[in-house]
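Ops channel
N.P.: pipeline sanity check, posting one input/output pair.
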């Protein structure tokens, strides 16, 4: 039997067993003299959303714990992990093309281990495709099986069968080591999965049902992050508004309560959250944003469409008016809030009139930034088999109009910051000008300003001197607290 699917048992034992496998790999590498200068290298390629980035930081943590050291060059790696996305066809095509390119690396170095994880290979058809057409891929692992990577690496090093993991159940795996990309900005996963089944979306199928981490585990992680220098923490989940931390000491821990508790931790940091579903964005959450100084005044509230007909077909469970009322509530509570949105163009059946409703919503909502996507049919979702799929030329033409309007509104919105002083976390050196630093304030735009590199990782008061569509410019204010 050349290869097999491993079924994850529902009662999979957790951290201890996982870490045993990490040790086994490390010992094996040690035995072969692959330590220190000789340590093998890992390379991780990540596609998709913040959730995937957070998962890749877990993969990196596991690789480091197993004894691999990081490289940014796949051709010098002994372990290559690809973390794929499935939300649109383009992401899948790109991943397959990159994986295709790794064949040359395997040809040159037959010992290299190549593993593919993430949303794409959580679909059996895609895992099958890799199994059948990409024989140099050693293993695939679904989004619920990150903790099984050490076992899979061990199997590959031992020359075992190729493995294709498709879990039956997605659980929360606590205790996976995390190697974060940034010391100052951190993703903090608070829940996984989604129950909403928007008719276009593959996520509920590839990330499973909603499950929330315990508030205790989240608070511990937040504390450790802050102690380690994190100054910008983003609570992550597909729909953080339905976070359910149960009842602790008689108090229900919803997202608002969780945020209050995190804000009560000592330390100077900013707290964000991603992503919200408008139907679940509660008054309590809005109040938490308004009342907590540490919470960034930024609300990402994807509308997807401004047409009631399309919203119903998308199974979004709100109307354009109900969505707009929510925005009014947010603006009443947090007048200077930065509002951002996701919009899909060319959903099946979208008429010119429906599209104009979306443009009208953009005019009304005055988003600081819009992330827009041409609808991409996803096999297995209801929308993929809906009639009236929109031809590409029409979607592209609508997209151009949407982008132009989005940029015009963003320009106008950005102007309001000129002359104001913003508290900015200096994240690093600007890519375009090494004399400048780049950071983020409450608004989502990057802010460029001249300051010494020693300020990286600190908050700097910046007077905004100019606004462009996609960034702000400024200089350190005379008064720094
Ligand atoms: N086609 C295009 N865009 C999609 N999104 C989700 N599924 C699809 C799809 N099939 C977009 C939504 C979501 C964002 C993360 O990706 O706008 O909010
Ligand atoms: Fe997809 Fe809708 Fe869930 Fe967001 S809320 S992940 S768009 S199903």
């Amino acid at each position: 039997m050349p290869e097999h699917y491993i079924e994850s048992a529902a009662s999979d034992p957790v951290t201890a067993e996982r870490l045993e496998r990490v040790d086994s790999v490390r010992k094996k590498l040690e035995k072969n003299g692959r330590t220190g200068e000789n340590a093998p290298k890992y390379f991780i390629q990540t596609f998709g959303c913040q959730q995937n980035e957070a998962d890749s930081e877990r993969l990196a943590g596991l690789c480091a714990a197993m004894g691999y050291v990081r490289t940014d060059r796949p051709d010098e790696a002994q372990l290559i992990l690809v973390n794929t996305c499935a939300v649109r066809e383009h992401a899948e095509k790109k991943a397959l093309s990159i994986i295709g390119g790794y064949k040359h690396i395997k040809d040159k170095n037959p010992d290299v281990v190549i593993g593919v994880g993430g949303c794409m290979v959580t679909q059996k058809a895609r895992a099958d495709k890799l199994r059948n057409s990409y024989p140099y891929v050693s293993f695939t692992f679904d989004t619920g099986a990150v903790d099984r990577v050490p076992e899979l690496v061990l199997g590959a090093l031992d020359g075992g069968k190729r493995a294709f993991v498709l879990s039956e159940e997605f659980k929360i795996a606590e205790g996976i080591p995390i190697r974060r990309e940034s010391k100052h900005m951190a993703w903090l996963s608070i829940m996984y999965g989604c129950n909403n089944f928007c008719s276009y979306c593959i996520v509920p199928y590839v990330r499973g049902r909603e499950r929330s981490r315990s508030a205790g585990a989240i608070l511990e992680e937040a504390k450790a992050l802050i102690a380690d220098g994190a100054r910008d923490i983003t609570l992550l989940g597909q729909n953080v508004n339905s976070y359910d931390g149960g009842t602790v000491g008689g108090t229900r821990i919803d997202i608002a309560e969780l945020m209050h508790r995190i804000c009560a931790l000592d330390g100077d940091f900013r707290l964000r959250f991603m992503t919200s579903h408008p139907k679940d964005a509660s008054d309590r959450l809005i109040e938490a944003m308004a009342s907590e100084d540490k919470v960034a005044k930024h609300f990402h509230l994807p509308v997807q469409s401004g047409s009631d007909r399309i919203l119903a077909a998308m199974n979004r469970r709100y109307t354009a008016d109900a969505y707009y009322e929510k925005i009014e509530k947010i603006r009443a509570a947090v007048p200077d809030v930065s509002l951002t949105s996701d919009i899909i163009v060319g959903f099946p059946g979208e008429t010119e009139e429906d599209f104009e409703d979306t443009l009208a919503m953009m005019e009304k909502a005055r988003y600081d930034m819009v992330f827009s996507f041409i609808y991409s049919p996803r096999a297995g979702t209801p929308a993929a088999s809906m009639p009236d799929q929109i031809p590409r030329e029409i979607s592209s033409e609508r997209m151009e109009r949407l982008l132009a309007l989005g940029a015009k509104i963003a320009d106008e919105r950005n102007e309001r910051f000129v002359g104001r002083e913003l508290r900015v976390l200096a994240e690093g050196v600007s890519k375009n000008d090494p004399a400048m630093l780049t950071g983020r304030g409450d608004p989502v735009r990057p802010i460029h300003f001249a300051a010494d590199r020693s300020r990286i990782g600190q908050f700097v008061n910046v007077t905004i001197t100019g606004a462009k569509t996609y960034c702000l410019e400024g200089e350190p204010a005379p008064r720094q607290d």
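N.P.: looks fine end to end. Confidence is low (pLDDT under 50) at residues 1-12.
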